[in-house]
Specification:
This protein is mainly alpha-helical and about 475 residues long. It folds into two domains: about 325 residues, no CATH class; about 70 residues, no CATH class. Helices cover about 60% and strands about 5% of the residues. It has a three-stranded antiparallel β-sheet with strand order 7-9-8. A two-stranded antiparallel ribbon has the order 1-2. Strand 5 and strand 6 form a beta hairpin. Helix 10 crosses helix 15. The longest helix is centred in the N-terminal third of the chain and has 29 residues. The termini are far apart. The structure holds uridine-diphosphate-N-acetylglucosamine and magnesium ion. Magnesium ion (MG) binds next to helix 13. Magnesium ion binds next to helix 13. It is a multi-pass membrane protein. Its cofactor is Mg(2+). It catalyses: a di-trans,poly-cis-dolichyl phosphate + UDP-N-acetyl-alpha-D-glucosamine = an N-acetyl-alpha-D-glucosaminyl-diphospho-di-trans,poly-cis-dolichol + UMP. One of its GO terms (biological process) is dolichol-linked oligosaccharide biosynthetic process.
C-alpha cells in the first residue's frame, strides 16, 4: 500500500489558517511587557502545523534512505517510515530557539523602574551600553540554553541509534552524556542538594538533609531513566507518543497550579514552572502532529529518537524546574514496566530482540508474546515463574513432562493482555492511555494532598519574600 505523502486541499487550508493565526498572535505579543505564555501557545500551533506537514512530506524520503520498519501487528506487515520523531525533534528545537526573544522580551526591552511602573522604559540601544545588563536574568537564560543543549545532544544520539541500531546495554547510558550540560548549570546556578525530611523522621534527621553529590547522581539517574522508560513502553501503534502526551499534559496542569490566579503571584516556584511550560507547549504541539500519523493504523513509526527526545524533555523540565520527584509520580506505569522487565533486561530470563505483543492473523487480535525456553529454567527460576503464574503476573506453558517451555514476556503490555485477554491493537493503546491518565492523576493527588500527611506544607502555599 503506497503511503500517501501529500496534504489534502482541506488539510492545507486548515494548516495555513493555523499558521496565519499563530503568526498574528506572535506579532501581537511584542506589545506591552510581552506575553510569553501566549507567544509559546502560538508558536506551538505553528510547530504543530510544520511538523504535521513535514511528517507527511518526508515519509518517502525516509524510506528511500532506509529508515523504515515493519509493522509487526498487521496481517501483511507493511513497511512504513521509521525515525519520524527526528522530524518532530528538529521542529521542536527550532521553536525553542525562536522562542528565546519572546521569553526574555520584558527583560531585554521593557525593563521598568519596578512596582509595575512603566515610566522608565529601557530601549535596547541603552541596554547595549551595558547600563541595565545586571537586571538581565542570565541564570534563567543559562537554564534555558542548557536544557536546549541537553535536548540537542539526546536527539543526535537518538538519531545515531536509529541509524545504527545500537545494542541495548550500550544505549542505556546514552542520556547520561546529554544530561551533563543541565547538571553543570544546576550546580552553578542552584546548587541545591538538600531535601526536606518527612515530619515523622525530622526528630532523627533534622528538617533538611543534604544529599551532596548523591543528589547529582539521582538527577543523572532521572535523566537516564526517563528516555529509556518511554522507549521500553513501546511496540504498539501510537503508544510511545500517547503516553508522552498524557505525561506532558499532566505536567502542564501541575505547572498551571503554580500560576496566578490559582497561586498568587509572586511565588518562588513561578519562574521554574513557567520554564517548564515553555518547554512543554511546543512538545505537545509536535507530538500531537506525530500522533495523528502514528496512531493505529500507523502511517509512520516514531523511532528511538522520539522516545529519547520525549523522555529528555521531561527530565529537563523536572530537573531544571525543581520537581523531579513529582515527575517520577507521573512515571508510575513506566517504573512498573521497568521493574517488571528487570529479569529479562538482566538476562535472568531470556530476552528476545522484540517483546511486543503477538499478532494473531486469524483473529486480528493481539495476545501476550512469549519467550521460549530452549533449555528448561533452573529449579529456582521455575519456582519463581510458577509463583508468578499463580499470582497471574505471568503466563507459562508447560510440556507433558511438566517442564516450562515458554513464558510471557515481561512488559506491562503483555501483562495487560494476560489479565484482559486478547484485544485489538488500538483498544490496547486506549487502555494504556487510560492507565497512564489514572496513575498520573493519582500521582498529582499524592503530590499535593497525601504528601501533607508527611510534610508540613505543600510548596504551593509558600509565600515569597518580596
Ligand atoms: C524496545 C523494546 C523491545 C520492543 C521494541 C518495540 C526493551 C528492552 N526493548 O526495543 O522489546 O519490541 O522497543 O518498539 O524493552 N514496531 C511495531 N509496531 C509499533 C512500534 C514498533 O511493529 O507500533 C516494531 C517495528 O518493527 C519497528 C520496531 O518495532 O521497526 C522498532 O523497534 P526499536 O525501537 O528499534 O526497538 P528497541 O527500542 O530497541
Ligand atoms: Mg524503540
Amino acid at each position: 500500500m503506497p503511503v500517501p505523502n501529500t496534504l489534502s486541499r482541506s488539510e492545507t487550508w486548515r494548516l495555513l489558517l493555523l499558521v496565519g493565526a499563530g503568526l498574528g498572535i506572535l506579532v501581537n505579543t511584542f506589545q506591552g511587557d510581552g506575553a510569553p505564555v501566549i507567544a509559546s501557545i502560538a508558536l506551538s500551533f505553528i510547530a504543530f502545523a510544520v511538523a504535521f506537514s513535514m511528517i507527511r512530506w518526508l515519509g518517502p524520503v525516509f524510506i528511500k534512505a532506509g529508515l523504515k520498519g515493519k509493522d509487526m501487528a498487521k496481517p501483511r506487515k507493511p513497511e512504513i517510515p521509521e525515525t519520524m520523531g527526528a522530524v518532530c525533534a528538529v521542529v521542536y528545537l527550532l521553536s525553542l530557539i525562536i522562542f528565546i526573544p519572546f521569553a526574555f522580551y520584558k527583560d531585554i526591552v521593557a525593563a521598568t523602574s519596578g512596582g509595575g511602573n512603566r515610566d522608565v522604559v529601557i530601549e535596547d540601544q541603552h541596554i547595549e551600553t551595558g547600563r541595565f545588563l545586571h537586571r538581565f536574568p542570565h541564570g534563567r537564560l543559562a537554564s534555558y540554553l542548557s536544557g536546549l543543549l541537553s535536548l540537542q545532544c539526546i536527539i543526535i544520539l537518538g538519531i545515531g541509534d536509529d541509524l545504527l541500531d545500537i545494542r541495548w546495554r550500550h544505549k542505556v547510558l546514552i542520556p547520561a552524556f546529554a544530561a551533563i550540560p543541565m547538571l553543570v548549570v544546576y550546580f552553578v546556578d542552584f546548587g541545591v542538594t538538600h531535601v526536606v525530611v518527612p515530619v515523622p523522621l525530622q526528630r532523627y534527621l533534622g528538617d533538611f538533609i543534604d544529599l551532596g553529590w548523591l543528589y547529582y547522581m539521582y538527577m543523572a539517574a532521572v535523566a537516564i531513566f526517563c528516555p529509556n522508560a518511554i522507549n521500553m513502553l513501546a511496540g504498539i501503534n501510537g503508544i510511545e507518543v500517547a503516553q508522552s502526551l498524557v505525561i506532558a499534559v499532566l505536567l502542564l496542569l501541575n505547572d498551571a497550579m503554580y500560576l496566578a490566579p490559582i497561586t498568587p503571584y509572586p511565588h518562588p516556584a513561578t519562574d521554574s514552572h513557567l520554564f517548564s511550560i515553555y518547554f512543554l507547549l511546543p512538545f505537545i504541539g509536535v507530538s500531537t502532529a506525530l500522533l495523528c500519523h502514528n496512531w493505529y493504523p500507523s502511517k509512520v513509526f516514531v523511532g528511538d529518537t522520539y522516545c529519547y527526545f520525549a523522555g529528555m524533555v521531561f527530565a529537563v523540565v523536572g530537573i531544571l524546574g525543581h520537581f523531579s520527584k513529582t515527575l517520577l509520580l507521573l512515571f508510575v506505569p513506566q517504573i512498573f514496566n521497568f521493574l517488571y522487565s528487570t529479569p529479562q533486561l538482566f538476562h535472568i530470563i531470556p530476552c528476545p530482540r522484540h517483546r511486543l505483543p503477538k499478532f494473531n492473523a486469524s483473529t486480528g487480535l493481539l495476545d501476550a508474546s512469549v519467550t521460549e525456553w530452549m533449555v528448561p529454567p533452573s529449579p529456582l527460576i521455575a519456582f519463581a515463574l510458577d509463583t508468578l503464574h499463580t499470582l497471574r503476573l505471568v503466563r507459562v506453558q508447560k510440556d507433558e513432562k511438566g517442564q516450562i517451555v515458554e513464558s510471557t514476556n515481561l512488559t506491562i503490555l503483555n501483562l495487560w493482555l494476560v489479565w484482559m485477554g486478547p484485544m485489538r491493537e488500538d483498544r490496547l493503546a486506549w487502555h494504556m492511555v487510560a492507565v497512564q491518565t489514572a496513575c498520573g492523576f493519582f500521582g498529582l493527588f499524592v503530590r499535593h494532598r497525601l504528601a501533607l500527611l508527611v510534610f508540613n506544607q505543600d510548596n504551593r502555599t509558600f509565600q515569597s519574600v518580596v
